[in-house]
Amino acid sequence: MRVAMLAPIAWRVPPRHYGPWELVVSRLTEGLVAQGVDVTLFATADSITSARLVAGLEQPYEEAEGVDVKVVECLHVASVFERASDFDVIHNHFDFLPLTYSRLVSTPMVTTIHGFSSERILPVYRRYDDRVAYVAISAADRHRDLTYEATIHHGIPVQDVPVGPGSADGTLAFFGRIHPDKGTAEAIDVARRAGRPLVLAGIVQDQAYFDAAVRPHLDGETVRFIGAVGPSERDRLLGSVDALLHLVSFPEPFGLSMIEAMACGTPVVATPLGAVPEVVEHGRTGYLVADVDAAVEAVGQLGELARADCRAHVAAHFSVERMVEGYLAVYRRITG
Fold first, then answer.
1. How many Å apart are CA 83 and CA 214, to the nearest integer?
2. DSSP secondary structure string, 188-205?
3. Domain containing residue 74: CATH number
4. Is the pLDDT of residue 65 over 90?
5. Model-level pTM greater than 0.90?
6. Do 329 and 272 share a structural domain?
7. Boundaries of domain holding 331
């Protein structure tokens, strides 16, 4: 099986800190290679992989200056389709643009839909629904207008994630984009009302929101902001807190941070929007809450949850091995 893995080029594969799509591409690519699959990864030149690497861009455009994003994205996508006959499957993680090339080649194509940025992109997905095998990352993120080959949850290398001890002083964590959708301000409110310290980690995606709703609460003690963190810092952080607060206000397509926290043994307190109920088992690996009041109450009940159960839940349902087998089954079906 020869697979062309088309990664985004906003960040490196795997990302140094932020880059959820690139992180999934890395984990899937390495898992496929471990299964003996011949994978060619199309990504930035600084990417790290055991697959064959083809790069048309030296560094991610989010980390470079003077890059015309549209130009480098078009050249990146074209580089895959110009070599389409070299592969048995093209696996697209690049959103909707590569779909427009799909009828120009005979190679079967899989597209993992990592979420819909807007309803405005749906016409492209509809047009190529009969040509491309779509994979949803959660049942909740399936769109009623599209046909799907499978739903495959993201997976992580559970064996490489250390189980953390939790916190000695009741510290909670927020890990993700600093943006109103992700509930950063709500996490601060919950921690304050619960009398718990809070650590915030992630990129600032909405500077105005950060300045107005987050910065005024930062005191370096009860509320700390440590910025974006890499994999080792992420695992240390998530393993050293009593819970991850994931109080999103939008339909979560999946939510990698939740399985990353639970793999460390840390339960999740989250609003049950989108895929969240598919990821968190209420009363066993965390609590699904309707609002801030319920989240404060849930924080008071964290002692009723076992960290070992959180870890076991991820190992059973969200391992890399399970994800890889899911995609291999899709490849086999579409190649006949």
1. 47
2. HHHHHHHT--EEEES-BS
3. 3.40.50.2000
4. no
5. yes
6. no
7. 2-155+319-335
